[in-house]
Amino acid sequence: MAPPPRTGIRWSWWNLLLLVPLVLLITPIFNRTGPALFGMPFYYWFQLAGVVIGVGATSVVFAMTRDRPTPPPPGPDRGVDTLDEGARP
Amino acid sequence: MKWTELIVFTLLFGVVTVLGFVAARWQAGSTLDHLDEWGLGGRKFGSWITWFLIGGDVYTAYTFVAVPALMFSAGAAGFFALPYTVILYPLAFMPLLRIWSVSRSHGYVTPADFVRGRYGSRALALLVAITGIVATMPYIALQLVGLEAVLRTLGLNGSGVVGHLPLLIAFVILAVYTYQSGLRAPALIAFVKDILVYVVIIVAVVYLPIKLGGWSSIFGAAEAKFAATPAPGDGILLNANNQLQYATLALGSALALFLYPHSLTGVLASRGRKVIKRNMTALPAYSLLLGLLALLGFVAIAAGTAPITNRATGNPDTNTIIPNLFEQQFPSWFAGIAFAAIGIGALVPAAIMSIAAANLWTRNVYKEFIHQRATPKEEARQAKLASLVVKFGAVAFVLFIDPQFSIDLQLIGGVMILQTLPAVAIALYTRWFHIWGLISGWVVGMGWGMLILFNIPSADGKRAHFGASALKLGELNVFGWHPFGGSTVQIYVGFVALVANLVVAVVVTALARRFRVFNGTDQTNPADYHVDEDDKKLRAIAAH
Question: Which parts of B154-236 fold into alpha helices (H)?
């Protein structure tokens, strides 16, 4: 595994997805009554749907930025001694 | 007196009391005489426990009664809690991983520990610690307000000090088992609390709209109510004046949340980075719940629910709206479960908050300034005692001072804790800001924020100070200069104060760097911000 860059920041373009839920701060987009859903004005059901947007953003980033190797290799538990000293930062 | 409700409530309360004491031995480490164990549950909570713990911590009893109450009285503006808790997790995702790793590798227990390590400045760490303690105290008092709303709906609505007695008993029990079990107590109780809360709210949002003729008639009733009131700010939609306030309040609250020491306690107690990542995607389940719960404020309008008068203060208490709605619309035994959910919902965060405040006191005041050679055992004992002091301080608040005061203080607390953002959150990424820049930014942001809040009257005109967190842009005053003169658009005070904080911090930092003022010693190194649970060189837990 590559050593971390000197600045200590690990950047992935996927991280930008985390900004998408901020759409919930732009009130003019959803500050209206129609179209209603189950009798609920747009303002309310749109923001409830925002939960799905938020979960989607964090899930994708979670899946795409896993620190490899996260899952331990299969087989019996590794003894501590078998781990290479410099393998992880 | 409502006996069925009272019996159900007492039974469930008894169950969590037993759990609270049993928790001391649950997944116990070698000793409880260390802050890693007492204050952070051994830093080994997995995904499920962390989910219940942070969920129980962030979505408090006060939230459960106050958010619907705000919807009931103000309408759309009260819904800010939903966008706030949706943007919260994506924003906190990356910084939380960094603070977990650096805290794990250096054994930090509080955000002020991190600041101390990052800048080597006792003064800056002390500012962060005191801000955390002062902002958390009224939050604990608010949990009592939430608990009391339930107790009064149960019929335990006496006047004077006797009226507060049930509250006092509940809190003594809480204080004793937190003292004994530390963070493991709220972690275990959170399971019960959250399962009850989920069941109650899901039943309520499915059953009540059917009973009351569907969502369209509920929103119709809310619209009719707001149209009939003279207040200009309410309604089922936002208006031209409160949209900016809505967005900045949601953003400011989201930025502030994980700066609160108690939220960070839940994060630091988790086992590894993957646990945190998983939780950032799973915690929004609570946000959905909160959004649905908020709508119960409108359901209460449609059902014609009225607030109960608090006999200790003589004022109608809008926080009793939700308990009272359950009382009216459901059979007694189910109302009892709902009350227990809210009541236990007050205990979990109150316990975590008192532990977090106790950790701050112990690590960043006691050990730093009073007893520098304190052993881990002495630290743990000090923290246990501090947790008692903090809790009884909160009780005293509610008993002897108008509860309105703790609501005001909580409003102030949000603005205050936001001022630690540069020193804690930004410092996770860069050390560009200078210690003196951060300190002067804190002083200006804090001072100005308090001044603005002090000058805002309440909407009903009954109180001249600390009435709301919304500032009219037209009243923004920078040394006599009104940049937005005449504007009636509102903005969140915390946001204004944070901008001022950052501007001052940048200017002073630039000056300090120009004159090459010493900027403290950084004990952390870049790799520390990425360590994970399976790293071999990891610091031992609860050692030295």
Answer: 160-181, 184-211, 214-228
Q: Which of residues 45-64 of A touch B (CB under 8 A)?
A: 47-48, 50-51, 53-55, 57-59, 61-62
User: Which parts of B107-121 fold into alpha helices (H)?
Assistant: 111-119
Token output for B103: 């805290």
Residues B318, B145 contacting (CB under 8 angstroms) = no
Contact A8 B530 (CB under 8 A): yes
Q: Is the Cβ–Cβ distance between B321 and B69 less than 8 Å?
A: yes
CA atoms within 13 A on the CB side of B283: 32
Instruction: Tell me how far the alpha carbon of residue B93 is from its chain's centroid.
Output: 18
CATH architecture of B3-423: Up-down Bundle (1.20)
CA distance A26 to A24: 6
Produce one character per residue of A37-54: b if its CB has 16 or more CB atoms within 10 Å, e if not. Answer: eeebbbbbbbbbbbbebb
pLDDT band (50, 70, 90) for residue B347 = confident
Q: Which residues of B touch A29 (CB under 8 A)?
A: none
This complex has an ipTM of: 0.84
Give the ranges where A8-73 is alpha helix by DSSP (H): 42-64
Domain-wise residue ranges, chain B: 3-423
Cβ proximity of B343 and B150 under 8 Å: yes
Contact A62 B277 (CB under 8 A): yes
Judged by a CB distance cut-off of 8 A, whether residue B250 touches chain A is yes
Residue B70: which of B246, B193, B224, B188 has the closest Cα?
B246
pLDDT value of position A1: 43
Task: Tell me the nearest-neighbour CA distance from A34 into chain B, angstroms.
Answer: 11
Structure-block tokens of residue B294 = 């908020």
**Per-residue model confidence as pLDDT tens digits over B221-273:** 988 888 888 777 788 888 888 899 899 999 999 999 999 999 999 999 999 99
Q: Which of B430, B412, B356 is nearest to B118 (CA)?
A: B430
Judged by a CB distance cut-off of 8 A, whether residue B241 touches chain A is no
Q: At what angle do helices B81-106 and B261-268 cross, to 10 degrees?
A: 60
Classify B116 in phi/psi space as left (phi over 0), alpha (psi -120 to 50) or beta: alpha
Segment A73-81 shows an average pLDDT of 49
> Mind listing the pLDDT tens digit for each residue in B473-490?
888 888 878 888 778 888
> Scanning the structure block, which residue is given the tokens 């203080």?
B409
**Cα of B281 to nearest chain A Cα, Å:** 5
A67/B526 Cβ within 8 A: no
CA distance to partner chain B, nearest, from residue A3 (Å): 9
The DSSP element (H or E) to which B490 belongs, if any, is strand B490-492
Compute chain B's Rg from CA coordinates: 23
d(CA B114, CA B104): 10
Q: First vs last Cα of chain A: how many Å apart?
A: 9
Chain B residues with CB-CB distance to A48 below 8 A: 82, 288, 291-292
> What angle in degrees, to the nearest 10, is found between the helix axes of B61-74 and B284-303?
50
